[in-house]
UniProtKB/TrEMBL annotation:
CDD domains: R3H_jag. The lineage of its organism: Bacteria, Candidatus Staskawicziibacteriota. This is R3H domain-containing protein. Residues 92-157 form the R3H domain. It comes from the Bacteria. PANTHER family: PROTEIN JAG, RNA-BINDING PROTEIN KHPB. PROSITE patterns: R3H. InterPro entries: KH_dom-like_a/b (IPR015946), KhpB (IPR039247), R3H_dom (IPR001374), R3H_dom_sf (IPR036867), R3H_KhpB (IPR034079). GO terms for molecular function: RNA binding.
Length: 157
């Protein structure tokens, strides 16, 4: 597996300078991949001073930026690859938080033998919960609900 990692740090002066390039349809960040380069995964780790604008509520803006960027790059490069976009380690911290909550609730379920339901969350977050708790022998996970109301339920074995 070939991985291309791009660590990008944006500061206010950089963004101010580059905002003029946006008006002229010039890219803020540009990178080239050689045609012979076989890339399976591109990791974009961006550091900014005010991440909330790019992350959005519950990470929704970040998720959509990643999706749009993947579509654009797939079309431009005409290659299939995975893209991981993170801003100020938001996704990394979110994954750690979800795993912590999952294990805390699993411990409660094991002690009380009562089912616990997490709040509704996107599919990629539910997947993290399912994968984390799949390693445990004392609890089992399932999903309930439809669409944006779908959530993970933790039960005792």
């Amino acid at each position: 597996m070939t991985i291309k990692i791009l660590n990008i740090e944006l500061n206010t002066s950089f963004v101010e300078k580059k905002s003029k390039s946006l008006e002229a349809n010039q890219p803020i960040i540009d990178f080239q991949l050689q045609n012979s380069e076989i890339i399976d995964l591109i990791i974009l780790d961006i550091k900014v001073e005010e991440p909330q604008i790019l992350i959005g509520q519950e990470g929704q803006t970040l998720f959509e930026l990643e999706r749009i960027l993947k579509i654009i790059l797939n079309k431009k490069l005409q290659k299939s690859f995975y893209l991981k976009l993170d801003i100020n380690d938001y996704k990394k911290r979110k994954i750690e938080y979800l795993k912590k909550i999952a294990n805390e609730l699993a411990d409660q379920v094991f002690l009380t033998k009562e089912k616990k339901a997490l709040p509704p969350m996107p599919a990629y977050e539910r997947r993290i919960i399912h994968m984390e708790l799949a390693q445990r022998q004392d609890v089992v996970t399932g999903s309930q609900g439809e669409g944006i109301n779908r959530s993970v339920v933790i039960s005792s074995r």
